[in-house]
Design brief:
The protein is about 25% helix and about 25% strand. It is α+β, with helices and mostly antiparallel strands. The strands form eight sheets. Strands 6-5-10-3-2-12-15-14 form an eight-stranded mixed β-sheet. A six-stranded antiparallel β-sheet has the order 1-4-9-8-31-7. The protein has a six-stranded mixed β-sheet with strand order 21-20-19-22-23-24. The longest helix is centred in the middle third of the chain and has 41 residues. The N terminus is likely disordered.
């Protein structure tokens, strides 16, 4: 069973595509937080309050909702509200012990991990985030039987395209109590007003001269929308103060749209796999109308995916010619901007980038092409922040077809933008401001209010002065919009400064795709999360947090110091094991016994995957204790045969390794390398997929059109691209395999697991540069795990092995830094043991560096020792929170297993990784003659996944750390239901015949 605690409801779209029948808000119940595959409506919205304040061109909306649980089960509530285009969430609160506690912003991954850990502990967390399709989503646990929970959400949004405000509200179930309040304090006259569900909402003048409306009702069946029509403010300038104390101004001036002159137009058209779900017809129609309206002298078309950009100048600069060219585009591959803006002949003065903005390969940032740049998108899940930053830096704007009509989109594309103007303080100082797209093609200016007495605006009509000493309204709108844009600019790259972006998001209290609100329960929860509680949590909790953080800093320093001492002791023990001489006992028949974990029933022996014959279970005797170590030594012999029974295999010969000691006082690589022969008998790969059978029936290049046809039916899952790529690779077409496998990155269901698999495959297919980029990306996304660092280090070493000079040195040194971080940094206890495996790899690298005359001062001298071995096997898998075990049956009949990690002949098994990814390692310094059997025991396989079956990778090394080192890498796939021991490989060790 898989407990799903991270799923978000993504069915709701942005305001431009709302349908009347779409539930908004949507409330889903999950018994005890478990995903059942169905949207349960067991929870009820007992109370819903909507409060809207309209100031200038912005709206601040606050929604409070109480969920009641009329069932007898503990529930998790999953609440989603589709937001208007451009909305920015700037507040979230949850009731904890009768008090509404504000959420605190933290990194999105950290927020999810904290929430899930608290749910497992049965406490009261709340998590709120903004989804890729511009919806607010929160999960609340627990909601106890017969009781309820209350959440509060606030967001700021700009006016709709017509200058009004819209909030669609509809529900399939009756809302118990409903209250709607609207205020327009700066409106000269009352705008039009309509309420959902037939509620009667009327304006009244308030004491300050503004307009307010209020209605309350019970048992309301929501349908329709809360709508406020366009209004005119009393003046062009609004002054406001954000909750953080900073003052902002909003200046609305009649910058009417003017037609722009276009001489040469260049359209950059994204043809990657992810674009197949976009509204391509709408994009093409708008571009045709745009060309017909702008009448450029020339039109270039540059299409791009992950291969080289394709540029062409149309034979005729007409909308019809552009439409025909775009309709002929074929789609596939990952999304990459590498070299895109350098493509095309001549200099264009106007450019339109048409994309969802979600780059998945190679580096990117929001540096626009050298022309006035617009961005056009139709995808509901487009990266609006990136596209907006790209366009604004290019002097244009992002046009979002999912939130505006085609006519409005055309007006924004054809507008020349603001006329030339300057804005300064009346004392001559510069003013920090941003242009904001307003309704009806107009522009507004939002900025930080200077300390001076006024603003001086100089435009086509001359100079005007606006005084800054008027009333300042307590209103977060302008500050929130400012903060959102500032954060978006920082995030518009593949590796932003997350700490700086998070600090800025907290300063203005804005949720982003990288920062989520989380509400926790007690002092320790906030300490564990590393975030300070809000003032609404109460003085007692805040004081407790401060004291606990002081104690934590002291404890962390002690843990860090103790960790290094512990690692040194562990490594000393590993060296002592390596120095020890073992005598091989008399061989006995091999056993195939399932060793259960304490308190866990032994798993059934399942059929092995990929045509592998299953091992036959035998009665389960009590495992004998390891015999005492014998006194005499034995010699290492050569490997006669390795029979690998896995499905997929790669073979490599490692670069010569220096046999000299890595340091003068460290253990030396003194074992003599042996002549070896590795003969692989791999079971036939079982292409038991209909699309692979169809491809296998083709010959030559006929696979390409057949693949394109099959992609239409099977291309919605990453597994399709993984399988086709492997089919190509196994027929010695690795270049084509690499080109196919990256398409998996652009499938809607792609996730971090997809990224890991693609990186693995690219590395196997020889595209090390892109594999390393993906591993860098994985490290950026999940820096809290040691595995991404180790994976990146090993990839860098592999690339360094193929290069020379400064390039090799740079890769080796970066790899050593990464491995050292795996060793010395404190990690979650789930990963105990990874540091020793990393030390084996770091010392192998240091020996290579020493052979090249390169020194190192990274690794602690006490940890430097090259421990070469006859046999090294490393198990890794691509699934989190799952348990795989490496077993090795030795010629003596003894099994190296998690509860018997040290065997009589000197076999040594690393610490048992039970929470996912691995690695686990088996070492044998001097291998006696006989048969060795490698097994993988599956205690918890992943459920059905769009990435396909979970995969287990075993790398088998002969003469590890010696010049004669050889490696075999092979993979097995775990089908749904696979549990228990599976034979991976069998090898014979004996004197060469």
């Amino acid at each position: 069973m898989k407990v799903v605690l991270v799923a978000a409801v993504l069915a709701l779209s942005s305001v431009g595509a709302w349908a009347a029948e779409t539930a908004n808000p949507l409330l889903v119940a999950r018994p005890r937080g478990v995903e059942t595959g169905q949207q349960s409506q067991a929870l009820k919205i007992a109370k819903l309050d909507v409060d809207v304040v309209l100031v200038g061109g912005l709206a601040q909306t606050t929604i409070s909702a109480r969920f009641d649980n009329p069932t007898a089960q503990i529930m998790e509530g999953d609440f989603t509200l589709a937001l208007p285009a451009g909305a920015v969430v700037n507040g979230y609160a949850l009731d904890v012990n009768g008090r509404m506690v504000d959420g605190v912003l933290t990194g999105k991954r950290q927020a999810k991990l904290v929430y899930e850990e608290r749910v497992r502990a049965g406490v009261d967390p709340g998590l709120a985030e903004v989804t890729a399709d511009n919806s607010f989503h929160t999960r609340v646990f627990p909601i106890l039987p017969g009781r309820g929970r209350t959440i509060r959400l606030s967001y700021v949004s700009p006016l709709a395209a017509d200058g009004g405000f819209d909030l669609p509200l509809s529900s399939s179930a009756v809302v118990g109590e409903m209250k709607v309040a609207v205020a327009a304090p700066s409106a000269v006259a009352a705008p039009s007003l309509a309420a959902p569900g037939g509620l009667k909402l009327d304006w009244t003048r308030d004491a300050a001269g503004g307009w307010t409306a209020l209605v309350a009702a019970k048992d309301v069946a929501l349908s329709g929308a809360l709508r406020v029509g366009p209004w005119n403010a009393a003046g062009p300038l609004e002054l406001s103060r954000h909750a953080n104390g900073e003052r902002f101004f909003e200046l609305r001036l009649p910058f009417d749209a003017q037609a722009a002159t276009v001489r040469r137009l260049r359209v950059y058209w994204d043809r990657s796999r992810s674009r197949t779900g976009d509204d391509l017809a709408a994009e093409i129609a708008v571009l045709r109308r745009y060309v017909e309206a702008a009448r450029p002298g020339a039109v270039d078309l540059v299409t791009f995916a992950d291969d080289a950009p394709r540029a062409v100048t149309l034979s005729a600069p007409t909308g019809e010619a552009l439409e025909a060219a775009l309709k002929a585009v074929t789609y596939g591959g990952a999304s990459s901007l590498k070299g895109v803006f350098a493509a095309g002949a001549g200099q264009a003065d106007t450019c339109v980038v048409v994309s969802d903005g979600r780059m998945t390969l190679d580096g990117w940032d929001a540096t626009p092409p050298p022309c006035r740049t617009f961005a056009l998108s139709s995808a509901k899940g487009a990266d609006r922040n990136f596209l907006a930053a790209l366009a604004e830096r290019g002097g244009g704007r992002h046009v979002d077809l999912s939130s505006v009509t085609p006519d409005a989109a055309l007006a924004r594309l054809t507008a020349a933008g603001t006329p030339g103007f300057s804005l300064k303080a009346d004392d001559g100082q510069a003013v920090d401001y941003r242009l904001v797209a307003g309704p009806a093609g107009r522009w507004w200016i939002v900025g930080k209010a200077p300390a001076a007495g006024g603003l001086v605006f100089t435009g086509p009509g001359g100079a005007r002065t606006f005084r800054l000493d008027g009333p300042v309204r307590a209103f977060d709108g302008a500050g929130v919009l400012w903060g959102r844009d500032a954060v978006a600019g920082l995030l518009a790259t593949d590796r932003p400064d997350r700490d700086e972006a998070l600090a800025l998001a907290r300063r203005y209290n804005v949720a982003t795709e990288e920062a989520s609100f989380v509400v926790l329960e007690n002092v320790q929860d906030y300490v564990d999360a590393g975030v300070a509680p809000p003032s609404s949590a109460g003085e007692a909790l805040i004081d407790g947090y401060r004291a606990a953080m002081v104690a934590k800093k002291t404890a962390d320093a002690q843990v860090q110091a103790a960790r290094l001492d512990r690692i040194v002791a562990t490594w000393t023990a590993q060296k002592a094991w390596w120095d020890k001489t073992y005598k091989a006992p008399k061989p006995s028949p091999a056993r195939d016994v399932v060793q259960p974990r304490p308190g866990v029933a032994p798993p059934a022996v399942m059929a092995a995957p990929m045509d592998m014959a299953p091992s036959l279970p035998s009665p389960m005797p009590t495992p004998p204790p390891p015999p005492p170590p014998p006194p005499t030594a034995y010699s290492s012999e050569s490997v006669e045969e390795v029979a690998v029974t896995a499905a997929r295999r790669q073979q490599s010969q490692s670069v010569a390794v220096a046999r000299a000691a890595a340091s003068s006082d460290a253990a030396s690589a003194e074992s003599e390398p042996t002549e070896s022969r590795i003969v692989v008998a791999a079971a036939a790969w079982n292409p038991d997929r209909p699309y692979l059978k169809a491809l296998a029936a083709t010959s030559g290049e006929a696979w390409r059109p057949r693949y394109a046809e099959l992609e239409k039916s099977y291309g919605d899952a990453p597994a399709f691209y993984f399988d086709v790529a492997e089919w190509l690779a196994r027929s010695e077409r690795k270049t084509q395999a690499a080109a196919v496998v990256v398409s998996a990155l652009d499938v809607p269901g792609a996730d971090a697991k997809t990224l890991i698999i693609v990186a693995d495959r690219l590395q196997a297919y020889g595209d090390l540069d892109r594999a390393i980029w993906l591993r860098e990306r994985m490290l950026f996304l999940e820096p809290d795990r040691p595995q991404p660092r180790r994976d990146l280090a090993l990839a860098l070493i592999a690339r360094g092995d193929r290069t020379s000079g400064k390039a090799r040195e740079a890769d080796y040194r970066r790899a050593l830094d990464l491995l050292n971080a795996v060793v010395v940094r404190p990690w979650n206890r789930d990963y105990d043991g990874v540091e020793v495996i990393a030390l084996m790899e770091a010392n192998r690298l240091i020996a290579r560096m020493k052979a090249l005359g390169l020194t190192q001062e990274v690794l602690d001298p006490r940890l430097v020792a090259l421990l070469d071995v006859d046999i090294r096997a490393v198990l890794e898998w691509n699934t989190d929170k799952t348990d795989m075990d490496l077993w090795v049956d030795e010629p003596t009949g003894e099994r190296a297993i998690y509860n018997n990690p040290n065997t009589a002949i000197g076999g040594r098994l690393s610490n048992d990784m039970t929470r996912g990814f691995g690695p686990e390692e088996y070492l044998l310094h001097r291998a006696p003659d006989g048969t060795y059997v490698l097994k993988v025991n599956v205690y918890a396989a992943d459920v059905l996944d769009p990435n396909g079956p979970s995969t287990v990778r075993v790398r088998l090394f002969r003469d590890w750390g010696r010049p004669s080192e050889k490696q075999e890498t092979f993979t097995i796939e775990l089908k749904k239901g696979d549990n228990g021991p599976m034979t991976v490989g069998r090898f014979e060790i004996g004197k060469k015949k």
